[in-house]
Amino acid sequence: MTAASRRREVTVADVAREAGVAKATASRALGGYGAVSDEARDRVLAAAEALGYRPNELARSMNTGKSKTIGVVVGDIENGYFGLAMRGISDAAKRAGYDIILVNTSEDVEAEIDAVRLLLDKRVDGLIVAPASAYRTEHLREVHQSGHPLVLLDRRIESLPAVSVGVDIAPAARAATRALVAEGHRRIAFVSALGTDGERYSGLPLGVSSVTDRLVGILQGLEETGIPISPELIRFEAHGAEKTHAVIADLLALSEPPTAILLSDSLVALNVLLAFRELGIKVPRDVSVVAFDDVDWAAITDPPMTVVSQPIYDVGVTAAEELLRLMRGMAPDATTLRLPAALVERDSIGPVAVSAQ
After folding, report:
1. What's the whole-number average pLDDT of the chain?
2. Which of 107, 163, 167, 247 could be joined to 238 by an S-S link, Cβ 3.0–4.6 Å?
3. How far apart are CA 3 and CA 48, in angstroms?
4. Beta strand segments in 179-273, E
C-alpha cells in the first residue's frame, strides 16, 4: 500500500487484499464468527496486524448481533462502594473480552431512565444497574421482560425477579449495634444519604433495599437489647458536606442527643467527620462512630474507625459473572446473591461520656 493510503483508516477490504482472501472471509476471521480455515484466519490476522487494522465495532455488531459491551448504571461514582464495585465489574468483563460503558445518575431516577435508554440504544449486550429507587421501576421491568440480560447491583427490587447481587449486611449491622450497646450507648443514631424517603424515618421498607438492610440489622440489635427505637435518631438526605453538617448539628441539638452514630457509607462518614471537626466533636470521647465500608482511610483516621467491612470488589466481580451467564443464555446461580459482611473493631467506639450518662 502507498503512504497516502496508509494515512486513511484501514478497512476489511484492505486486510482481505493483503491476505489474499475474499472480503467475506476476512470479515468472518476478524469478527470471530462463521467458518474460516485456520490457514486463512492466520493470514488475515497477520495482515490486520501488519496494516494496523482496527475493527469497526458498529459494523461488527451489525454482523454478529453483539457489541461486546456491558452498560453499567450507578448512583454515585464518588461513593467508594461503587468505585470498587466498578473495578470488580471491569476486571471480570475484560477477562471475558467485554468493554464497559459507565453512566452515573447522582441517584436520580429520571437520569437512570435516560441512562438505560441510552445504553440500549448503543446496543449493549447486557446491563448492570444499581436502582436509585424501588418506587419507580417500570424502565427496569421493561428491560427484564424484554429478555435483555439485566443484573441489579447492591440493591434488589422485591417486585422484580431480576438477578441481584449485593451484601448480606443486616447481621453485621446488628453486631455493630450490639457493640455500641455493650459500651453503654442507648441513644444510637443512623445517618444516610438516602433521598427517596424524606429526611426522617417513617417505617420500613425504604426506597433502597441496601439501606433497608442496614436499618433492619440496627433495629434488631436495639430490640434484642431492650432499647426502644427512636425515629428522631434516624436521618436521611445527608448528601454533601453542607447538608450533612446540618443533619449532625440537628441531631446534637436534641434534648437527648445521640452518643453513638452509625454512618451508612464511606462518603457519609467522611462528611460527618468534617462536621465533627467544625463542631469541635471528638471521637469517641464525645460520640462513638461506626461506618459502613472499610475504605483505605478508615484505618488511618484518628482514632482508626470501626467499620462494617463489605466484599465490594467481589460483589462487582459476581455481578459481572452473573450477567455474562445470562448473556450466554445460561440460568443464573440464584436470583438473589448475597456476600457476607463483617464488623471490624478499631478505636472509634468508646464508653458513654459521664456527662451524657
Report:
1. 92
2. 247
3. 17
4. 188-191, 234-235, 260-263
Per-residue exposure over 149-161, b if at least 16 CB sit within 10 Å of its own CB, e if not: bbbbbbbbbeebe
- Decide: 126 and 71 in contact? Cβ < 8 Å: yes
| 77 beta partners | none
Residue 103 to residue 71: CA distance in whole angstroms: 8
Distance CA 99, CA 91 (A): 10
Cβ distance 293 to 78 under 8 Å? no
Question: Residue 31 belongs to what H/E stretch?
Answer: helix 23-31
Cα separation, 350 vs 265, in Å, equals 20
- Listed residue (267, 348, 318, 323) closest to 124, CA to CA: 323
Query: What pLDDT is recorded for position 1?
Result: 42
b/e burial code for range 205-241 (CB count within 10 A of at least 16 → b):
ebbbbbbbbbbbbbbbbbeeeebeebeebbbbbbbee
Q: What is the DSSP string of 322-342?
A: HHHHHHTTPPPS-SEEEEE-E
Q: How far is CA 306 from CA 81, 177, 216, in A?
A: 17, 12, 19
Is it the case that residue 9 has pLDDT exceeding 90?
A: no
